[in-house]
Task: structure prediction
Amino acid sequence: MAATRSQAETCDPNALDGLITEWRTVHDTVQINLDKSGNEFRQSSDFWTGKTGDRARDTAAAAVTAGRRFTEDLQTAITTLTADRDAIWGAKNRATQAISAAVQAKYDVSDDGNVEPSHGAKVAATSSLDNPDDQGAALAALLKYGKDTFELPIKSALNDLGTAITNAGTHIQNALPDTQGVTTVAAEAPAKLDPRMKLTGDQGREDGETIADGKLSDDERARILEHLTQAGISKEDWNAIQRGEVLTVPQSTMDYLTNLYDKSGRDGLLTLSENLKNDGSSQAQQLRAGLAGGMMTLSNESVVTRDTQGKIVDRGGFGKLNSEIREIVGTRPNLAGAPDSNTRELPDDYRPGMFGPKTDHRSAILDYNADLAAFGDFINAGDPDYMPGDRLGVEMGRQAAHQAWILDHGGIGDYMGTKYPDAEALRDSENAAQSLLGAAGRSNDASYALLTGNGSDELFGKDTPGQSWHAYDHESAMGAILTHEWSDDGAAAGSLMDWVSGDATNADPTRAEHAGEAAGALAELLSTTKTGGGVNMYDTLLNMPGQENHSLGQVNPLVTRSIANSLAPYVGDIVGAPSEITGTSGFPADSVGPVDGTRIFSILDGDPRAGATINGAALGLAEKIDRNFAAGAFGGGEEQRGLGTYSGRLQALVDSGMAAEVADFTTDETARAKALADQKSAAYGVAQNLLGLTGIAGPAGAIGGPLAQAVSEYYKNPLTSVDPDLSGQIRDDYLEDSDHHGYDASRSRTIGAQNYNMMAQLIESGRVQPLMLPPDVRDVMLESSPDGSFTVKPYLSAANTDDKADLLADKLSTDLNNSGVDDGGRLEYMRLGTQVNDWFRREIISSGTSDGQGSLAVLKTDELEKKGKNNWLASW
Result:
């Protein structure tokens, strides 16, 4: 980005001299001590012998080597920064000299470098000419001379200056990223190179008082927007904060933001936000977004300032916000006995009666809900990359859950003392809850705390003046969020968990652990028949309150899909598979049994896309396990027969979840069969796409990791489309004819299909050559290309008729045995899976309609747990 004239005239390249000198001093000091230490330890061999002396010298040598790498990096940084300083001086001098030459020649130079003849020059050029055409020609010549002679070199120099300043800032920040003192210098560097970029606390105070006054001129809007732009944080820096890193900003920036929001106050800020929203101009929307982003920045505990030694001296956080903002977000009044209340009444400014300005409950709740909605709308208007601090995110999420509970339990009417509360108050409460959820969901750490309840007491509001405190109940809060009907179909609620699948296989162990814990909390919530508050969450989510027995997937399909995406990488954990199969961490071991798993899958099956997601992931992992068994057993290798149990569990869970979900909405046998087939069709399509992303099976045991990663990538841009209008309904066009010709989903997990998966693995890994297969099997199983190569078809494409399915079932067992996968181990592997399927149909839920209805009624109680049926068994 090109510099400006004023920047060229005011920037001070000598600001870099102090840093260069400091780095040179550090370099020389470290170098001298490294040389001294190295020599002393080398000479110690004369008097310090034996293994102890050798180990000490080896340790010293390693330290000296590391130190020399540091000094080499520092020398490179010094050389680079010296060149940057010289480049800034060169560009600055060229720019100022060219500007001076233009001014001396009677030309005006604008801040962006444009050159225009001065008024005096225009008068002089035309004073002796009477003919207008001659005057016009003279002025054109004068303008052209200025553009060619002065403007081109000025703009070239300004462009070079802008590049040089940007490069210097980047080089400083990247020179020694692990040295906090350098980070501090990097944060201060832009303001030192260009004094106009330095914010001050006084500017923040002035801007805040201007906002509080409520009457902003266009110039004042532009000024505040420019200041907020200077205080802005890049997308890359926000990504770093999301990864758990700390961002250092200039103290002047922290002072500006602190004073801005302190002086603007709640009323001034919300009034300006509404005015800017109604204005609709580009500048107004940018200013509104900038104000929201600035508040996010100030609230974030990962935004810090440091002294020259790298010590943190100031930090963003919830306590930095204006007290009125903290109060409206963090106060949860006790309306109708809301379980997460922390005060008996509305915040002080809204209380009716003796100590408040309002005269009655109606006006109090109207004003309170209107301001809460206005704040939610404001804070959610910022750049989506900006995220709240942990405490602000938690407070917004809890307030959203609190408002959802009040709406679903008549709290507003109860407070007003009427059965028919004001529609305006209801609308504002709804909008506030949805906006606050959306803003809270931008922070992974805040979302993690809301989903799991993990975090310090202080994070959950302990010792807040004027508020009572109780331990945060994540089941109650998340239950209120899930069971409320959202106007956005649950999109904002889903943002609380959209990060989980992406972090499931994160290289950072803490992030991966948090993702697993969050997924575990979701799994537990969906499957419990008795929360800490005594709510049967499973029955509630199957039959949402006030929704005519519609399920979560039908009422809030988008949050259902987010839950499915979050749990998909953990299908192996759900069936109790060990970590070498799942490839994940953090999911609580043995926390989900077969009964729990059936409940989870049945709820997610309430939305077609969510069902396809979770079932596709399970079928994909089951097929991956089949393939890994074949890879391990090939040629007399190690047979991991026990893997068959996990493959069987996954398939059984898919079948039982579908059976339970369909039993919940139909008693017609034909309709039931059609619904089950349709769901399995979608799931199989997802499974095939996931397997396509993971490639062929790796070494036996390395199973789940690639699939978990594929799940994360797949759901960023799904390859399989599912009719969005299904929502628990049955597709009438599924079955091609009454004889059920064509695709039969029930074939997808038969022994014939498992044999097919195993042979596909051997072909794709190069262990079996396609031409070694019998011609009839090859014709059905493979697709040939003009170049003579072969591609294995998906099983359901190959077995698309009864004859082809029977051919594969008859031939592949023999072909596998001939290819090196022994019949004995393979049949035992399959027998273990079949046992699991039989147990599920016998003990959990039948695929038959009438039996399924009875099984579902039991599934909604804790009867199966009491009978010991909720444990994964080693033998079935």
Q: What stands out?
A: The two ends are 69 Å apart (CA to CA).
